[in-house]
């Protein structure tokens, strides 16, 4: 099945929203208490948000949740979750959901969406900054609290802080408009700083958790220093040996 055969539309029935709950279990593997229930999705809709689903042959295979928000006094959306079933990951479904989210937001007069992602995940960083055109200027240490289960060695008392970057998506920026039509965007300014991250973070966490914690601390220090200096990350160099964020003067 090609991505052209995927239907993107709003999840409206309780059954479709329940499918989003099940996808959370499959994709995120979160404790049940951290799963957003159908009630939360219904409340979000009636508060002015929406849940877009990706359907293949009538089967829900992905969704993106948009929660109403205010950013600098202007109406915006907080993109709380984007999930794609494992068998369909890497096929462009996530991108289709995000571009549909942009289209729906603009139709409602909203031009700004934000969300969080892990600073250490190179694939997500490239997708957010280079495929969508989002920028980053805020690092939030330990956003959800320390996780002692991800590493899988609770007996060693090694935990990973849930550090997050905030992606800021100006839906009508020059870069985003170009990318939305399939055009290539060429950055004309010169990056003034780079922040390197591991190429395979998940493997590092499994093989050398203490080094992973040390790397996370280094990355945090570098981001906080860069943002404190007024820089903004608006590019990412995908490289098997040195994947890195590109930071520019605002």
Walk me through this protein's architecture:
- The protein is α+β, with helices and mostly antiparallel strands and 250 residues long.
- It contains seven helices and ten strands.
- It has helices at 14-28, 38-46, 93-107, 122-131, 174-180, 201-207, 209-228; strands at residues 7-10, 50-56, 59-71, 74-84, 112-117, 135-140, 164-170, 193-196, 231-237, 244-249.
- The strands form two sheets. Strands 1-2-3-4-5-7-6 form a seven-stranded mixed beta sheet, with helices on both faces.
- α3 links the parallel β4 and β5.
- α6 (201-207) packs across α7 (209-228).
- The mean pLDDT is 94.
Q: State which percent range the strand residues make up.
A: 25-35%
Structural class by sheet pairing and helices: alpha+beta
Q: Spell the H/E element sequence.
A: EHHEEEHEHEEHEHHEE
Unreliable stretches, pLDDT < 50, 5 or more residues?
Answer: none
- Global Rg: 18 Å
The helix fraction, in percent, is: 25-40%
Number of helices: 7
Termini separation: 42 Å
Could you tell me the number of beta strands? Answer: 10
Main β-sheet: number of strands, strand sense, barrel status? 7 strands, mixed
**Please, what is the oligomeric state?**
single chain
Name the overall outline: globular
Query: What is the mean pLDDT?
Result: 94
How are the strands ordered across the major sheet? Answer: 1-2-3-4-5-7-6
């Amino acid at each position: 099945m090609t991505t052209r055969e995927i239907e993107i539309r709003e999840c409206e029935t309780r059954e479709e929203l329940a499918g989003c709950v099940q996808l959370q279990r499959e994709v995120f593997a979160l404790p049940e208490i951290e799963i957003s229930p159908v009630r939360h999705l219904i409340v979000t809709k009636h508060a002015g948000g929406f849940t877009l689903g990706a359907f293949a042959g009538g089967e829900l295979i992905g969704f993106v949740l948009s929660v109403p928000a205010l950013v600098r006094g202007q109406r915006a959306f907080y993109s709380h979750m984007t999930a794609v079933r494992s068998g369909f990951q890497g096929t462009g479904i996530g991108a289709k959901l995000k571009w549909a989210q942009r289209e729906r937001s603009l139709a409602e007069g909203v031009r700004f969406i934000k969300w969080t992602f892990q600073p250490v995940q190179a694939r997500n960083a490239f997708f957010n900054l280079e495929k969508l055109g989002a920028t980053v200027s805020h690092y939030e240490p330990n956003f959800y609290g320390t996780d002692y289960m991800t590493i899988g060695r609770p007996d060693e008392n090694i935990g990973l802080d849930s550090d997050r970057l905030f992606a800021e998506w100006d839906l009508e920026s020059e870069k985003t408009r170009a990318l939305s039509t399939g055009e290539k965007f060429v950055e004309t300014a010169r990056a003034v700083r780079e922040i390197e991250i591991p190429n395979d973070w998940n493997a590092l966490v499994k093989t050398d958790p203490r080094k992973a914690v040390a790397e996370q601390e280094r990355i945090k220090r570098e981001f906080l220093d860069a943002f404190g200096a007024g820089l903004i990350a608006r590019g990412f160099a995908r490289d098997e040996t040195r994947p890195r964020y590109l930071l520019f003067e605002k």
